[in-house]
Design goal:
There is one protein chain. This protein is an all-alpha fold. It folds into 2 domains: about 100 residues, Up-down Bundle (Methane Monooxygenase Hydroxylase, Chain G, domain 1), CATH 1.20.58.2140; about 80 residues, Translin, domain 2 (Methane Monooxygenase Hydroxylase, Chain G, domain 1), CATH 1.20.58. The chain contains 6 helices and no strands. It is elongated. The termini are far apart. The model has no long low-confidence stretch (mean pLDDT about 95).
């Protein structure tokens, strides 16, 4: 029996989709790595390197987005979404270090679930930053970071998050707890 022409068309489309997915996953993994490395650069006070890495990640995302025209479902690919979350986290942390506040970031990372996951994770980076500042003799930074993280928690409380984002939110609440413990420890030290 001869195969229907439709089979060949389906095979061709499937193979093209598989190839596009593999390329997207590879580019997404590289963008995630660049975003993660930008966070490390920010912790080393190397804003120039962080910005360069974020620019490289942005280029990789643009390459990924070309495949969405042909295969729109790839926009929901897990590797791509994870890379966007890391990118959002890095952008938010960088902006906090530059301005002392959080807000608007690159549109590609501003979809609600991506932004909220990145925002939750950025609170952990702010705790690490506050910890480092205490060790460098700047304990006043803890109060500044605590104010911002508290604002994030209050904002997210109003959203009644569920599932994955609820887990992220719970991590952010633990980060606030770490800041509160730091504040307590610093107050005790001042009394001694």
């Amino acid at each position: 029996m001869k195969r229907p022409i439709l089979f060949a068309q389906i095979q061709k489309r499937y193979q093209a989709h598989s190839k596009a997915r593999r390329e997207l996953v590879a580019q997404s993994n590289e963008a995630l790595s660049k975003s993660k490395r930008s966070i490390f650069a920010l912790h080393r006070d190397d804003l120039k390197a962080a910005d360069e890495l974020l620019t490289q990640a942005s280029v990789l995302f643009a390459q990924c987005e070309k495949s969405f025209k042909t295969f729109p479902q790839l926009e929901e690919e897990g590797a791509y979404r994870a890379a966007l979350e890391e990118y959002a986290e890095s952008l938010l942390f960088r902006d906090y270090l530059k301005t002392g506040s959080l807000g608007k970031i690159d549109a590609r990372a501003s979809e609600a679930s991506v932004y909220l996951a990145g925002l939750s994770d950025a609170t952990g980076e702010m705790v690490r930053y506050a910890t480092r500042q205490v060790t460098l003799g700047h304990p006043e930074v803890v109060a500044e970071v605590t104010e911002v993280v508290t604002m994030v928690i209050e904002f997210m409380l109003d959203l009644d998050l569920t599932g994955y984002l609820r887990n992220k939110f719970d991590q952010a609440k633990k980060n606030l707890g770490r800041l509160e413990q730091m504040t307590y420890d610093l107050a005790i030290r001042e009394q001694i």
